[in-house]
């Protein structure tokens, strides 16, 4: 079977325009609330043109989620069993916070999907993500057993990092309203979380 031909520059540009428009639509309205018409209008393309590149709203959504997961999982994949334990964990916290700062729409898209019961992600969550978390838990537990990290539940350590970092993307409006003007939420959060996890995990 011959591989599919590589898209032309114009085709790739239009695909990127559609995905960028869809990211805004899905992250704001969720899968059910977003429409092909909204995506087409935001991309400045006709609806038939959008459907030329993607057969359905489902295909656009799945493409976005696949890209999102590849980005989202990278920091956890980079946890180095041979590294210095505390610095490896703190770097993971920093990377997750940076992702929340730089990819807030992607974070809200993921949150929408989870709140809707993860119909598109269920197999990945219980497969690839569970396996990756399992590897990280094994690494963390090994460090704790060696006395190189303070003992805590590794699963809930990871869950807490997700919650403490992604909050700043998913609840950005609330965070900024409470802090008021003159604050940099991500810079302040970075210092706070570094101190929090350092105190929690240092031997």
From TrEMBL:
Residue intervals of the HTH tetR-type domain: 12-72
GO terms under biological process: negative regulation of DNA-templated transcription
SUPFAM superfamilies: Homeodomain-like, Tetracyclin repressor-like, C-terminal domain
Keywords: DNA-binding
DNA-binding region positions on the chain: 35-54
Record keyword DNA-binding present: yes
Entry's Gene Ontology molecular function annotations: DNA-binding transcription factor activity; transcription cis-regulatory region binding
Keyword Transferase assigned: no
Protein name, as recorded: TetR family transcriptional regulator C-terminal domain-containing protein
Species this protein is from: Paracoccus caeni
UniProt lineage: Bacteria, Pseudomonadati, Pseudomonadota, Alphaproteobacteria, Rhodobacterales
């Amino acid at each position: 079977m011959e591989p599919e031909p590589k898209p032309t520059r114009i085709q790739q540009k239009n695909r990127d325009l559609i995905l960028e428009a869809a990211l805004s639509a899905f992250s704001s309205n969720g899968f059910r609330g977003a429409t092909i018409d909204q995506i087409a209008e935001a991309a400045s393309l006709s609806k038939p043109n959008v459907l030329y590149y993607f057969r359905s709203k489902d295909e656009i959504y799945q493409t976005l989620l696949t890209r999102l997961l590849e980005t989202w999982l990278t920091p956890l994949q980079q946890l180095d069993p041979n590294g210095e334990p505390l610095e490896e964990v703190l770097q993971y916290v920093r990377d997750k916070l940076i992702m929340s700062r730089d990819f807030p729409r992607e974070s809200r898209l993921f949150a929408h999907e989870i709140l809707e019961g993860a119909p598109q992600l269920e197999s990945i969550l219980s497969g690839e993500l569970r396996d990756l978390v399992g590897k990280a838990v094994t690494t963390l537990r090994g460090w704790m057993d060696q006395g190189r990290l303070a003992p805590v539940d590794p699963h809930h350590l990871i869950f807490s990092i997700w919650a403490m970092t992604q909050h700043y993307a998913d609840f950005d409006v609330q965070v900024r309203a409470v802090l008021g003007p003159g604050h940099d939420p991500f810079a302040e959060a970075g210092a706070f979380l570094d101190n929090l996890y350092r105190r929690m995990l240092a031997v």
